[in-house]
Amino acid sequence: MEKISQYKLKSVSVENDIPEYLLDTPIVDLLKYHNCGKEFVTYEKAEVVVVMCMDNRKQLNIPKRFAYILRTAGARVTGYEFMLSFPIGFAGVKCVALIGHTNCGMVNLLSKKEQIIQGLIENAKWTKEEAEKHFDSNVHFFEVDNEVDFVVNESKRLSEKYKSVLFVPMLYKVEDNLLYLVEQ
Asked: What is the pTM of this model?
């Protein structure tokens, strides 16, 4: 088990690697589909919500209609909780995978300020002042200190809000394209 941050990452390559508390949840199938190559079955309705970063290096290997997928900067749900409330309230989903990933662009976002501002000037035809104001007013909301700590803390926060829903913090390693459980 790899230690990252104050938490440990648990790899899952066979069913026996899955902790007992997750048995009988769709997280088992998510891990089996993505990490173990489980053959797809047909789903009539989604069984899990997956919250993950919008980063284009990550693609889950899951069947159609298996999950609601929410992709936001850094897998941040703050301010967008209704996107969770809909599948929980309307579709009865009771399990959420919060998936951060290695090498997330939202980590140390402040160091990317000049590149982002220059990109907005060149690609969106913004003035330097517009781009700086936009960056400065958003950086502290979107910046992530550490990918693992963030998904753990977000899981805890959301568990308080949605008391009977299981939130599972995970990490997607872009280096090997596998999902890891974050053990608290």
From this structure: 0.90
Q: Are 113 and 90 in contact, with CB atoms under 8 Å apart?
A: no
Taking the C-alpha atoms of residue 13 and residue 111, their distance in angstroms, rounded to an integer, is 36
The correct CATH number of 2-106+145-183 out of 3.40.1050.10, 3.30.505.10, 2.60.40.1120, 3.20.20.105 is 3.40.1050.10
List 168's β-bridge partners, or say none: 97
Cα-flanking dihedrals φ and ψ of residue 83, to 5°?
A: -65, -25
Distance CA 45, CA 39 (A): 18
Helices (H), 43-89: 82-89
49-101 pLDDT, tens per residue?
999 999 888 889 999 999 999 999 889 999 889 999 999 999 999 999 999 99
